[in-house]
Amino acid sequence: MNIAVSIEFLQNGTVVALISCLIVLLVILGFVLVRRIRRRKRIRFQKLLRHWLADAITNRVMDPDKNFVISIQLEKLLLKKYYRLLALEELLACKKYLKGSAMNMVVQLYEQLQLRKETDKKLKSLIWSRVVKGIQEIYIFDQYDAMDQLFAFADNENPFIRSEAHFGVINLQGFDALKFLKQIQNSLSNWDQINLLHQLKLFEPKPLVEMPEWLLLENESVVLFALKLLEAYPDEQYYPNLIPCLHHSNEDIRKQAIRCCGIIAQYDTARLLEEQFAKETNNNQIKTLETLKKIEATPNKDFLLQNLNHPDDRVKQLVAELIVIKFPTDAEPMILNSQENSHQRHQLFKHVQALS
Amino acid sequence: MKKLLIVEQEAVILEILNHCFTANGWVTAGCSDGKQAMELMNSFQPDLLLTNILIPFYSGIELLQAARTKPNPIEVVILALLIDDAVKKQCYEIGAAAYLTKPFDLEILLQELNEIAKNKQPFFH
Fold first, then answer.
1. Which residue from A15, A187, A264, B5 puts its CA 20 to 30 A from A194's CA?
2. Angle CA(B42)–CA(B45)–CA(B49) in degrees, nearest 5?
3. Tens digits of per-residue pLDDT, A6-19?
């Protein structure tokens, strides 16, 4: 009796397992089929769209006055979100690689197909990667009317969103877009700063009228970036605003200020750098000496003699180089009489002489 | 008729280039990787090769080398996203006819290729 029940139970179990496997198999098959159909549809649409795009762009290049017509088939497909997003991807690739009239046409198409609606949806998304994509679409398709939206993202909590927004506003407005610097509380990463400086190179430089305000901001990353801007686009009128940065609590800011001093140096630069020298970190001391080498002003002899006995050999060598450059006639006695160890003195002098 | 082989990984750009050059009297063939390009160089026998640098299997520079060492050398125009002076110099040393960067102006590209084709008339079929 028990054995019969067990066999029946096993048979039932086997049937259930078989049915389950079959269902799972059908689900997988269904899934694969749907994906295949979708893929085929996508390929067919891309082929159609690419062909139409190529035709429209070629016609525009050959005859700039010719208007393009969207086929009924394409127009129908573009009513669906899936195809609209695919079209957006294709247009993005075109805009990225084309210039001139062809590029203008791509922007025109983006607007005419009302793909901006898809971009706006992305900007409202709660997923940061979609927002970033939306920001990219705004600046790639030159949507100047969305500048306010981009400025609003410039101080977003998410570093990827704000980084893309900074890049976007600069991409659209160049130097005028730098007004966002005063609004941001979050920091500008080093990568951001490099990107923005690189992007600005593509634009005609404009006076950095807000420089004095930037240099006084609490956001240290903005102060640092402002100094990098001053180094890249030197303007002597901001020299007085630069001096307080030599005494800033942030070492990187002081270092950048020293670099700027080397570019927009004035009559008192050497004295100011010498005064600050003793309070500086070793790295910044080296930067100061390199700057003193670059500027025209002559450093104080006593300052140089005093630092020929500096504990750091790199500093000692730079000071000796400075003496050879700035006091070529007195260099030998200055260096040879300065140190206690005569062998060391001779070695240093020989080395510096060889360098110069 | 001048024969042009286009090697470009971005499908939509390949289609645009194909379309544009065909409409301007060229016979074109296009592909998206170096392997196909090598095969097409033998079977299609182009007069001019327009290629990107970063493509699968063989790089644009390898294609350039192969094109220039043929008994009947093929003129090569590089169309790349890279603006690396060292790469550019290398391309010219190997024998590239021109090095254009992306984003590119279709009209200028067309003019440039027509110009190269005109100057090298004896090589064309």
1. A264
2. 105
3. 777 667 788 888 89
